[in-house]
Amino acid sequence: MKILPNELPPKYWQDLAKKNGISRNCYQARLRLGHSPRKAATTPINKKHQQRLGKYVEGSARQAALAAGLPETAITHYRKRNKGTELTDQQIIKKLQAYHDRMKNPISKQAAQNGLTTATVYRRMSVMGWTLEKALSTPPASPSEAGKIGNKVRNQKRQKQREEKRALNNASAQRNDNTNTGTAHHVV
Predict the structure, then answer these.
(1) How far apart are CA 25 and CA 28, in angstroms?
(2) Range of 68's domain?
(3) Same structural domain for residues 96 and 126?
(4) Annotated region Disordered: where (predicted)?
(5) Residue 187 covered by a domain
(6) pLDDT digits over 43-101, tens only?
(7) Are 174 and 154 in contact (CB under 8 A)?
(8) How far is CA 70 from the centre of its chain?
(9) Is residue 181 situated within a structural domain?
(10) pLDDT in tens, 106-162
(11) 9: Cβ–Cβ under 8 A, 6 or more apart, which residues?
(12) 87 and 115: one domain?
């Protein structure tokens, strides 16, 4: 049994249009203009129109973004959001790729893969001053190790508080000495 072109599902024609380099918007616009699904999916795009859009111009920002696996308008959108930026297209692409990589693999996911909670990672970074890489790569401490680390941090804080208290006491003692020896009041 032979299948007629008008009996094929719309998904088939949309996929064919994509393979032929015709965007979904262009394909749907052609359908609205009355083209058959076959003609809308197979008619090549006007070359002048392509060049005006910058889609197939060698060295264009769109081509660079597409080659890097980013949306074709990524560089343009970045420049609009960051007016006055002096970054080159390649620097913008590197920055956007790093951002997309972080979004694909968030810290919570990386922490879970390493057997850590997100809270542990953030505590290591904010309280202990570790880098993100060290906070994620250091395995979780056993309960006894965690207790030792906690005691060490607690003792350091207490020592610092004692030193601050001594410094305050010394400063106030010197002030008292200066007031007592500076002028003597005699009561008659």
Answers:
(1) 5
(2) 57-104
(3) no
(4) 136-188
(5) no
(6) 887 766 555 555 555 566 777 777 777 777 888 888 888 888 888 888 888 888 888 77
(7) no
(8) 15
(9) no
(10) 788 888 888 888 888 888 888 888 888 888 888 887 888 878 888 888 999 999 999
(11) none
(12) no
**Cβ-proximal residues to 57 (8 Å cutoff; 6+ apart), any chain:** 51, 63
27/15 Cα distance (integer angstroms): 10
Residues 157 and 113 occupy one common structural domain: yes
Q: How far apart, in whole angstroms, are the C-alpha atoms of residue 88 and residue 78?
A: 11
Using CA atoms, how far apart are residues 47 and 54, in angstroms rounded to an integer?
10
Domain count, the chain: 3
Question: For tokens 């003792």, what's the residue?
Answer: 155
Both structure tokens of 41? 């999916």
**Residue 112 placed within a domain:** yes
Span 160-185, pLDDT tens digits: 999 999 988 888 888 777 666 655 55
Find, among 82, 75, 29, the residue nearest to 54 by Cα: 75
90 in a structural domain:
yes
